[in-house]
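Reading is simple: each integer encodes one residue's backbone shape. The lines below illustrate:
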Amino acid sequence: MSRFIAGTTVYSLEMQFSQFKHAYLVRLSASVDVVRLLITQGLAFRGHDESKSSLSRGNFLQILSWYAKKCDNIRDYVLEHAPQNDQMTSPMIQKDIVSACKIETIKAILEELNGDYFSLLVDESFDVSRKEQMAIVLRYIDRNGFVMERLLDIVHVQDTSALSLKRAIVNLLAQHSLSLSYVRGQCYDGASNMQGEINGLKMLIRQESRSAHSIHCFAHQLQLTLVAVSKKCIEVGKLVVLVSNILNVLGSSFKRMDEFRDSQKQRIQEALDLGELTTGSGLNQELGLSRACDTRWGSHFKSFNNFILMFGSILNVLESLVLDARLLDERAKAMGYLEACRTYEVAFMLHLMSDVLAITNELNKCLQKKEQDLANAMLLVEVAKIRLQAYRDEEWDSLIARVSLFCIKHEILVPNFEEPYVSSLRSRRRLGDNKVSHHYRVEVFCNIIDWQLQELKDRFGEATTDLLHGISCLNPIDLFSSFDIRKIMKMAKLYPDDFNEFNMGSLENQLASYIIDVRDVDERFYNLKGLCDLSKKLVQTKKHSNYPLVFRLVKLALLLPVATASVERAFSAMKFIKNDLRSQMSDDFFSGCLVPYLEKDVFDNVSNDAIIKTFQDMKPRRVQL
């Protein structure tokens, strides 16, 4: 009888413990679901600012309560049957779950990498609390032949010397069983601690991996090109300052913004009544006052373009400010801006720079695509040069016609192009030196475009190297028209760790068979648009196993980064996650939130079971599942 009672007691205890574990698992799963939502939306866990005072009404608890009420099967476990000392909603557990989410996201990225070669994209930036953060992005080719750029982590660095940055990178790679010996490309901006030819980060990494070729970020080079032109041409500098100041004046007052919107609506209605505009879905949308940023010259194109489209409304608000401003200083500034806007020079420069930046803006957007390869990037630069040259040779008359129509519409005096040009920087005794037409066509129009072309040639002159010649020869566009075995073999010699003397002979033999196969036999390789398409097609057709050395070369070509756009995206996300209200986030918690937030497509495929297992393995828990 006693044995029966004892057995019943053991069975009862096992049942109670099993129910307790089930309840724990349900509460933990609910917490993981809420953490997922907060991370993917970039929301604070406690209140709106992660402060301890807002814990009682924090986002985590509010969403957990709502989640429990919506799901009848977990309501009892989450809201009613949780033990009084339950820690599942504590900040410590929340942070542990966040860390588990980050660990599993990085694990999924490393599974994509599959122990293969990769490139490093690195940059530094201050966060809102003035801490120097270094973002490290990996560029690699996944198993399907796709180019991937993924944030590995963001690390706080106190010392920004090249040696300290290298040490931080090595330590981070070691945490994930990676090594600098697998690095096959580097991409940085122009900072001396990165690009220094003696002690820069790129040279320190080259000492560890001879094949870690460095690329100066193309988008950054393009930006430097435009900055150089603005410094050479005073008219461009004046235009940038004028537009920036006017937009600051208009945007500093809600009343002026309302006046601006009303004027804009009225002008659109007048244009519709006159038949100058047509109605339709997506047409005639309200335009904003886009402020330009000196480090993002693509924003200047949008700023100038919108300025032209909203020119009449801007003049109306400036006129109103001249009449109604209370302070003499505000009235004087508005009058100065209004007089400057009503000059032919401003109208001409607005249209000229809008046209020039339209060409370079397209190049800028193409360069920042994650899958962009170096061969196509060099071709895009050449296309931009050709377009600028064609604009210089053929579009002068068209530009003058458009500027004249703009001036007539806004009652701006059009000068006589045959009269002598009077400059405020010259003595009036030199009136006969140049005509107005010569000034605008030669001294402004031709000079700006010539400077632009010269800067593009100087800054993107790397196309003469054996490396980029070889990459261009691998490019499949125009049915492999650029294919040249001799140049490709020269490129292979630049990767001594991947192609030894024995491999070089095998590579040459594979290249000879490969080009006949893909160019003359297999129609599936027709009309490919770049190395990225070639890589995917080689995997799809299983030819990557037939020509492994050729596929290795294609991968090495694709690994060379074009721009640090993925790093810049990480910094944009950083400012969203760690904002003024969340400036006290710890580095671990901040990194744990940022990586899954930025790599949402990877994080979405991470299962709750994997996160829970990692959470359990991090430290001893009250309940082991």
Residues 53-57, 280-288 have pLDDT under 50 and may be disordered. The CA atoms of residues 7 and 209 lie 66 Å apart. The chain has 28 helices and five strands.
